[in-house]
């Protein structure tokens, strides 16, 4: 129950803050039929949801798969998770260390074979305990899981090492596709290059670099759905083209998000034919200094970098041109565990007086013996919001006499450099699906697979562990503050810049889809319909 | 003539081999590892996963073994699989080749239809207002990048269609082959063909004009005029045919370039062509794909040059290759 309330508050706040423009979304009976065309900015490196972390996989591929549980597609901002292939959300047993899921009997994979608990078991075994040589991006999220078993064809049991509020949200992550055990037994890598699920749409075809097509699954187990006859996910790399595609009705929507200018252009051009949904985004850009490299091994230098940045002023200016807005700490702003404004203002880089903050930054640099600091900021070649925020940061650092050169690379080489530790200071991101601060903040741990700061900190691990083990919300909040202070202020391992703001303008004839705080959520398209 | 063609085809073999060696070496000089790129965004890399990846795509083999495999594939026209997508290269290229070929042909036709009449008129009407207009038109084409013209075309279509029909229309952004739906296909490809064809025609117009001006001053043209031959006949039969030799060379080179060089224009119109594949394969360090694409482009250039040489013989009967 506590978990529900923790999630309910930010969701409610998000809903209240969510502007809806254009055509009113009154309750209409969904119409069946039609092909939804939408644009996707990038192509996924593989089709394996267990391995990938990019939205470029979710948007074209999620409609083909089922998951064990999920955010409610009819009401994705509701704090409750609902079953997808299970029959009812289980109650935890054994003091919160055991969850037993009953699996529906009426589900078939698209090849006609029945989906049973054995398939669910095999899928989570691959995610949580991957075999040697098999890559799993979300293994760390399930660190509390001791075992997964399937005693019969209808039952899956998860045993936990300790009770954890992060477990159910981790299960509901939309990347946790249910794969066929028979296929996995033959080849654990099969799903990297092939698609075969049990979701609302059946894989029809894929043209590399161009389009992924799906058609309605006639045997879909959620009665009456999906409403669409099919979909076409069209890959289009340039933002201008994606905006024009919606304007010229070659696509109804892009599910990631556009900057304010694109929204304004579409509204001006299309009027009532465009509907805009907006809300805060569970995604934030970070600045991570390489703690293994001089002078960034000195926490005074790292603190100076964050003290130089005027987040409050930046929010006002950047939110006009980029997909960023909210000032926040390590937790999604508005969540019960997030820092309030007065708490934030005590942290380095969030002081209300930016001049005082920058004076402190200069003092720290001088104290550390670093004069005329020059470094390269590694950045990802994605304009929204990476290079825009990167350029803004360079100006912020210039205010305290630091000279920075931005090195922009394509995603692949960029991450290759981060993994190899070949950088001074890098831009990084923390984008999560379900709003779950306990899991989301694992990104800041020294042991996280995607922590590029290359530092060691036993104290931080201890704080995180304590936060996960307590069920008391007030205690969690207290520990979260200490954890946050250590990450962004005392040690300044990672600097939070600005939280993203999601703006989705879409054709008004597309109905049924509701915005969520994550571009990973609610993408199976089972409830989307076309009012044409 | 046949002997000449055979000689030229045989000469293509060392050209292709040289290109093969060069691309193989150059690709391996670029720092980086395709497996690191493929797995990097997943957050942390398991060494075993990396080793499996390298084994799967063959980059764990000694360089000599990799080269011999590449050469064997080249001789048997089997380029293997894309290291990035795991799909057969022939399928990946096939998808894009038909699109790029169609755009190149349509752009070439556009260029010919614009360049030859305008270049000829401009030369014949030298230093008149017509000449100035044509020269302005062609200079604008050279100065204006085709991708920028493409953006203007899309915006123009959106604005015009809204003004005419009440709602904006945009050309399709997903390719359908000509034989599946000719109308849909042409409504997508005509615009990039116009954008690139205009730039392409600008160069050819200027070349046609200067070649025509030169030919029109030749003695045999003066003789024809003295004999009382009609002006139109002089221009068409005596001058234009001879002036076309350098124009054909330009058109041929541009055609070959269009097959793989339309990177930005492809992005503007969302064309899934060879140019885009080229850039992606280099940035992904997909050796197999890049090598196959380079070989394809080299072969296209070689064949286009051969075709131009043959065309020379038809345009100028004085040119004979079998003497």
Folded structure, characterized:
The complex is a heterodimer of chains A (about 525) and B (about 325). By secondary structure, chain A is α/β, with parallel strands linked by helices. Chain A is built from 17 helices and 17 strands. Helix content of chain A is about 30%, strand content about 20%. Chain A has a five-stranded mixed beta sheet with strand order 7-8-9-1-10, sandwiched between helices. Chain A has a five-stranded mixed beta sheet with strand order 13-12-14-11-15. The longest helix of chain A has 18 residues, at about 475-490. Chain B has about 325 residues and is mainly alpha-helical. In chain B, about 75% of the residues lie in helices and about 0% in strands. Chains A and B meet through α7 and α14 of A and α2, α3, α5, α7 and α12 of B.
The mean pLDDT of chain A is 90
Strand content of chain B: under 5%
Order of helices and strands of chain B: HHHHHHHHHHHHH
* Broad shape of chain A: globular
Q: Taking strands numbered 1, 2, ... along the chain, how are they ordered across the largest sheet of chain A? A: 7-8-9-1-10
Q: For the CA atoms, what is the radius of gyration of chain B?
A: 24 Å
Oligomeric state of shown chains = heterodimer
CA-to-CA gap between the ends of chain B?
9 Å
Helix content of chain A: 25-40%
Low-confidence stretches of chain A: 1-18, 21-25
According to DSSP, the number of beta strands of chain A is 17
Mean pLDDT of chain B: 87
Name the shape of chain B in a single word.
globular
Q: N- to C-terminal separation of chain A?
A: 41 Å
Give the percentage of residues in beta strands of chain A. Answer: 15-25%
Please tally the β strands of chain B and state the result. Answer: 0
Number of helices of chain B: 13
